[in-house]
Amino acid sequence: MPTMSRVADLRGKTAVVTGGAGGIGQALGRRFGRAGMKVVLADVLAEPLREATRALADEGIEAAGVVTDVTDYTSVEALADAARDRFGGVHVVCNNAGTGAVSEGYLWEHDLADWRWGIDVNVLGVIHGIKAFVPILLEAGEGHLINTCSGNGGFAPIARGAMGGPATAVYPMTKAAVLCLTESLYTHLEMTGTRVRAHVLFPGGFLNTGIWESWRHRPDRYAATQQRRTPETTLAGVVDRFEAAGAHVEFTPLDTVADLVIDGIAAERFWMMGPPTAADQVVSKKAASILARGEPDYLVDVLVQHAESTSDEGGRP
Ligand SMILES: NC(=O)c1ccc[n+]([C@@H]2O[C@H](COP(=O)([O-])OP(=O)(O)OC[C@H]3O[C@@H](n4cnc5c(N)ncnc54)[C@H](O)[C@@H]3O)[C@@H](O)[C@H]2O)c1
């Protein structure tokens, strides 16, 4: 495999991060900036995006914010144009924008509007990012495209939530798709002989970000079509439920996630993940189940998982 950019090579180059107005995206932007990169943050939320961009600029990072809706290909193309116009090229792209895609009840009861919203942002958004940016990376001749996945779906779906009832199937389905897309992309890039690489990021741990309360910014076009029977999720409520189930909740610093990406680029690591945790057992159990043509006994039960470990990744976004 050819040698790629190392961290030092990133200096002076440009990173584009979708979902950059907060959470993991902003942390990635800051980390890229501190590595000497120019940074384009993209998000659908204009005001938080402005604040996030200003925070980076206040640190001396050359940063630009571009309001972007990843569900709209024209908007993502405009982001690519803006990044090139402003900084002359693009070398690292993080398809990181995401929505919590929570839906209540059993899978067959989920609101179709929840499916559409989750699929449009988490899957189509990534496809749009690939289509708009890979040709630019190919033109540059080197670079990295990083898609944000999750153990919830990337490994196996969380089937049962912290209250013991069914957990949303929307989110894990979209993240399973993100892994599949990234695997295909990796192969297709390799087939062309390019030095451009695809990576998949599993943020890991319990992260204090906006994803738990995505419903606060739900666009009208995805308005619920069914009457909700339960209150919307809040991070405080999730923490309470985990603690009531005997699990101690400790948030992983977002800088740790950003380090996975920087280190993963330097090491040319496809799987951008932290050190092994109990969640890895889901992967081996799943492989064993497939090979044995057995029952899917690896499916994640968040309560059981927390009884086993409080530092794994599989039970949350
Ligand atoms: N927080 C976790 O525990 C966790 C764990 C694993 C994976 N992830 C993934 O990490 C990524 C970042 O999420 P986060 O946890 O930082 O949450 P977050 O809500 O803080 O960040 C997501 C960002 O995406 C933006 N976004 C939503 N819809 C968009 C659209 N249509 N166009 C452009 N931007 C849009 C939001 O405005 C928000 O700023 C997501 O893909 C999420 O699924 C999060």
Tell me briefly what this model is.
It comes from [Mycobacterium] zoologicum. This protein has helices at 7-10, 23-34, 46-58, 73-87, 112-140, 151-154, 170-192, 235-244, 254-266, 280-291, 302-308; strands at 14-18, 38-43, 63-67, 92-95, 142-148, 158-160, 195-201, 271-272, 300-301.
Ordered list of secondary-structure elements with their pairings:
Elements: H1 7-10, E1 14-18, H2 23-34, E2 38-43, H3 46-58, E3 63-67, H4 73-87, E4 92-95, H5 112-140, E5 142-148, H6 151-154, E6 158-160, H7 170-192, E7 195-201, H8 235-244, H9 254-266, E8 271-272, H10 280-291, E9 300-301, H11 302-308
Parallel strand pairs: 1-2, 1-4, 2-3, 4-5, 5-7, 6-9, 7-8
Helix pairs in contact: 2-9, 4-5, 5-7
Bound molecules: nicotinamide-adenine-dinucleotide.
Pfam families: adh_short
Protein name: SDR family NAD(P)-dependent oxidoreductase
Keywords: Oxidoreductase
Account of the 3D structure:
- It holds the Pfam family adh_short.
- This is SDR family NAD(P)-dependent oxidoreductase.
- It comes from [Mycobacterium] zoologicum.
- Belongs to the short-chain dehydrogenases/reductases (SDR) family.
- This protein is an alpha/beta fold and 317 residues long.
- It is built from 11 helices and 9 strands.
- It has helices spanning 7-10, 23-34, 46-58, 73-87, 112-140, 151-154, 170-192, 235-244, 254-266, 280-291, 302-308, and strands at 14-18, 38-43, 63-67, 92-95, 142-148, 158-160, 195-201, 271-272, 300-301.
- The strands form 2 sheets. A 7-stranded parallel beta sheet has the order 3-2-1-4-5-7-8, with helices on both faces.
- The chain is globular and about 50 Å long.
- The model is unreliable at 1-8 and 309-315 (pLDDT under 50).
- Nicotinamide-adenine-dinucleotide binds at residues 18-19, 21-25, 43-45, 68-71, 96-99, 121, 125, 148, 150, 203, 207, 209-211, 214, 217, 316-317.
